[in-house]
Write a structure and sequence with these properties.
The chain is an alpha/beta fold. The protein folds into 2 domains: 184 residues, Quinone Oxidoreductase, Chain A, domain 1 (Alpha-Beta Complex), CATH 3.90.180.10; 133 residues, NAD(P)-binding Rossmann-like Domain (Rossmann fold, 3-Layer(aba) Sandwich). The chain contains 10 helices and 16 strands. Strands 3, 5, 6, 7, 8, 15 and 16 form a 7-stranded mixed sheet that branches. Strands 11-10-9-12-13-14 form a 6-stranded parallel sheet, with helices on both faces. Strand 12, helix 7 and strand 13 form a beta-alpha-beta unit.
Length: 328
């Protein structure tokens, strides 16, 4: 099969297209003929360092949509020809190739009415946002939320989910993305490069602070955001935990949640892996209903992935980029 491979840890421009052996499913696994694969920041971050378990050449790609091509022993819930999508295991070869292997219990049916390129945009960013807004925060109508990185994948899905829950959403992004983020449901957008986010939040909330913060940027940014939370507020961290010692004990009586969907595989937690499929079904249903937009901004070819990952690494990409595979 044709695949985009990493010969050794390196930058996205070191990825090369070449022939690779077609993978074979083992017990409890299925082989998926990849129709589309979503791109995520974790791809270029992992490429730089690799993982101890990787065997090179290695195939990246966590977000896969395609058709079940073969089933391994003991798989009864899936058959050849079933359209599926899933969040993959970062320690195993992924979807930057014509075929990929996945545990059967992590798959979900393709959301009704979606094309493969749309479904492939959802798993990593969409499932993370869904877990943040609907599972961790259990966001309530009438509350306020600050989403850092509202034009990105996780941030953009979080804005939509919060809006759907009746939350008043404030989001940060650059000025050229203002209309995009407002269309997703943000009430106010803040240019983090030109404005003081803390001052704007203070003004927008009459000094109270927001009930929820979703940080997709960094530990330092999460730390800065502690002071923007209202008393009893909650924060979800996707890119690093805040330094809670910047606050006096009990000063805010806040709660902090950490998300790392991929570690469901790392720690071998079967229930957490099965939950990935459950999230896929629940989040996919919202997309099918039109409640959530897929935010697909570009559909590219396999050979264009390195350039797209390079742009992702510069943190200036709006929405989601998806690569469409040759299916013949």
């Amino acid at each position: 099969m044709r695949a985009l491979v990493l010969e050794r840890p390196g930058k996205p421009d070191t990825l090369r297209e070449q022939d690779m052996p077609q993978p074979q499913p083992r017990s409890g696994e299925v082989r998926v003929k990849v129709h589309a694969v979503g791109l995520n920041p974790v791809d270029y971050k992992l490429a730089l360092t690799g993982l101890p378990t990787w065997e090179y050449p290695f195939i990246l790609g966590l977000d896969v949509a395609g058709v079940v091509d073969a089933v391994g022993p003991d798989v009864t819930e899936w058959e050849e020809g079933d359209p599926v999508y899933y969040h993959g295991d970062m320690s195993k070869p992924g979807g930057y190739g014509q075929y990929s292997i996945a545990p059967a219990h992590t798959l979900a049916w393709m959301p009704e009415g979606l094309e493969y390129s749309a479904a492939a945009a959802l798993p990593c960013a969409g499932f993370t946002a869904y877990q943040a807004v609907n599972r961790k925060l259990r966001a309530q109508a009438g509350k306020t939320m600050l989403v850092h990185g509202g034009a990105g994948g996780v941030g953009g899905f979080a804005v939509q989910l919060a809006k759907a829950a009746g939350v008043t959403v404030f989001a940060t992004c650059q000025r050229h993305n203002f209309n995009f983020v407002k269309d997703l449901g943000a009430t106010e957008v803040i240019d983090y490069k030109l404005d003081s986010v803390a001052e704007r939040i203070d003004t927008l909330t009459d000094g109270r602070g927001v009930d929820y913060v979703i940080d997709t940027v960094s530990s330092d940014n999460a730390t800065d955001s502690l002071l923007m939370l209202a008393y009893g507020g909650e924060m979800v961290c996707v890119a690093g935990l805040p330094d809670l010692y910047t606050l006096a004990p009990g000063e805010k009586a806040l709660s902090v949640h950490e998300l790392a969907l991929g570690n469901a595989y790392t720690y071998g937690d079967l229930a957490a892996q099965e939950d990935l499929a459950k999230i896929a079904r629940e989040f996919g249903a919202l997309v099918s209903k039109g409640t959530i937009k897929t935010m697909v901004q570009e559909v590219i070819r396999l050979t264009e992935i390195p350039d797209a990952l390079e742009r992702l690494s510069m943190r200036h990409v709006r929405g989601k980029i998806v690569a469409q595979m040759m299916t013949t």
